[in-house]
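Sequence in, structure out. Go.
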Amino acid sequence: MPTLLVLPTGIGCELGGYAGDALPAARLLAAASGCLITHPNVMNGASLYWSDPRIHYVEGSSLDRLAAAELALRPVRRHRIGLLFDAGIEEELRQRHLQVADGCRATLGLEIGPVAITDQPLDVRLSLGASGVSWGELGQPAALLRAGQRLRDAGATAIAVVARFPDDPDSAALAAYRQGSGVDALAGAEAVISHLLSLELGVPCAHAPALSPLPLDPLLDPRAAGEELGHTFLACVLVGLNRAPALIPSGVPAAPGDLSIEAVGAIVAPASALGGSAVLSCAERGIPVIAVQNPCLLQVDAAALGLEVLPASSYSEAAGLVLALREGISPSALRRPLPSLAQGVGELVQQA
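Output:
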């Protein structure tokens, strides 16, 4: 039963607010559903990653378009991954990333190349919204698109982007994040980059920030540890993109194995972050929305939106609900008290 897992980027989710710390939940939901569709920030664990043929790695705006029936997903055996570098990356740091890509070619057998460098620095700028949610801007979006177009024209079927992000090692916000109480300040800008490329070029895209290594922090939160194991975040992006499904626009004849929103049986999202496009599109179609208690900075819940949802206290419980739906078991039959049908009949008589 294909299932969507949405964990909005940069909103400080207790589970999923770090690089790859939602991977255990994704693996559990994939086992329960048999087919999970989720976005890169769920799967990207910096130097760590997990390949699972049941999990489809789909950039966030493409996942929204899938939910809106604007495209379908087509499984592929492998992609030819184009590597796009920001001209603002220093030579040594770029070499570190190229060595990671070579390591993925030699050790994991990935097909990587061609490589392109933007014709001017992308000028990434980070910011926080009034609510504390992370956001960002790109000073030179046209340069990003020109480089992406060159890669696609040269035969790339997916694109991994490495952009130079600002270093701020003495920031109080960064210290809080590393110790488990802050928001991922990079996530909003990363989403801007991958959304723009994927929307314009129609191919799977994901982003890895280029940053200088941080000094050792003995109080590092375990959720942040995966981000500090090496010089780059690129390895997980390359692994994820290798078998990311191709994006098939609506109107293109379907092929065997294509996955459209009509096949989706549930969507799982944080209970206080239900205002996203994918959740609302699924709710409009009558697809069950499983709302998981996962504290974050937003307070957009089912009551605020007038949605009927299946509540879950954890992703373990959400996996149980997915399995129940997959097996044709009514979730209401698993809860107590179980209202009598006679009560419902009385209500209908009164309405008549």
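Check: The chain has a mean pLDDT of 92. The chain is about 35% helix and 20% strand.
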